[in-house]
Design goal:
CATH superfamily of the largest domain: Vaccinia Virus protein VP39
Number of domains: 2
Shape: globular
Helix content: 25-40%
Radius of gyration: 18 Å
Structural class: alpha/beta
Bound molecules: S-adenosylmethionine
């Protein structure tokens, strides 16, 4: 199976998908609180939210006194993040860029990458390039927390087809297993007879062993794993894989 080159540009746009659904926005304060409990940062510390999207976590981090930089390639989502920051009366530094080409150098005390904003590239070397960029962006000893979908759970619960009723539209997910990941096709069928939209994307599947190896290649040492933002241990039954890693030094 093939996916369009740079598929993310046609996928992460409001006309198709926005990660800041009302339910996701509601969960953000509790998720941010868990992240900050693990990062133990002092007030004013510099935090990078890599692939911040519409900024639902970034504003929570800023509300707690951190100097937050959010990076995303989507200008639409960054505009939404800026509006959210204005509404919450917090400051965010927002950077439009590609996660594979980070230009920061030892600027951050910590970095986060949340809600499976990783594993999008068909070339594994692009994932490593991204992680190396994160390592370079961190000060020595800096922490990196990632939240991605758990490969063990996905493999054990693989369903080639899944329909969801999303209220205004039906959402169909179709998956094809490949050696390193999955090809996913999402189809949105509006109930009012509007235009049917379909996008195909790739997601590389990471379990504890694979993400540890990838982080290690980039000079990031995994320290702890969890299976949820309530601190549940990581098991094959947990949908999420949350990992905390540290840059040597
Ligand atoms: C699943 S969303 C999560 C967004 C945000 N972290 C959240 O939890 O709401 C993935 C994000 O990754 C961004 N993204 C995708 N590919 C990217 C790339 N190559 N470089 C930078 N950002 C990218 C998308 O624009 C989107 O905002």
């Amino acid at each position: 199976m093939r996916v369009p080159h740079e598929w993310h540009k046609d996928f992460f746009k409001n006309s198709f998908y926005n990660p800041a659904s009302p339910a996701a926005v509601e969960q953000a304060p509790a998720e941010a609180a868990f992240v900050l409990k693990q990062l133990k940062l002092k007030k004013g510390a510099a935090l990078l939210d890599l692939c911040c999207g519409p900024g639902r976590h970034a504003v929570e981090f800023a509300k707690r006194g951190l100097a937050v930089t959010g990076l995303d390639f989507s200008r639409e989502y960054l505009e939404e993040a800026a509006a959210r920051a204005r509404k919450k009366k917090v400051k965010l530094r927002l950077v439009c860029g590609d996660m594979r080409r980070l230009k920061f150098d030892r600027e951050f005390d910590a970095a986060v990458n949340l809600f499976t904003s990783f594993g999008y590239f068909q070339k594994f070397s692009d994932d490593i390039r991204t992680l190396k960029g994160v390592a370079r962006a961190l000060r020595p000893g800096g922490l990196f927390l990632m939240d991605i979908i758990h490969g063990d759970f996905l493999r054990d619960n693989f369903r080639a087809k899944n329909w969801h009723d999303m209220g205004e539209y039906f959402h169909l997910e179709e998956r094809t297993d490949s050696r390193d990941g999955m090809f996913n096709t999402w189809t949105r069928v509006p109930k009012d007879g509007g235009e049917i939209q379909e996008r195909t994307f790739f997601s590389r599947i990471y379990d504890k062993k694979r993400i540890s190896a990838a982080l290690g290649k980039a000079g990031l040492k995994p320290l702890k794993f969890w299976g949820s933002f309530s601190g549940r241990p990581l098991t094959a039954k947990t949908v999420r894989l949350i990992v905390l890693a540290r840059k040597a030094g």
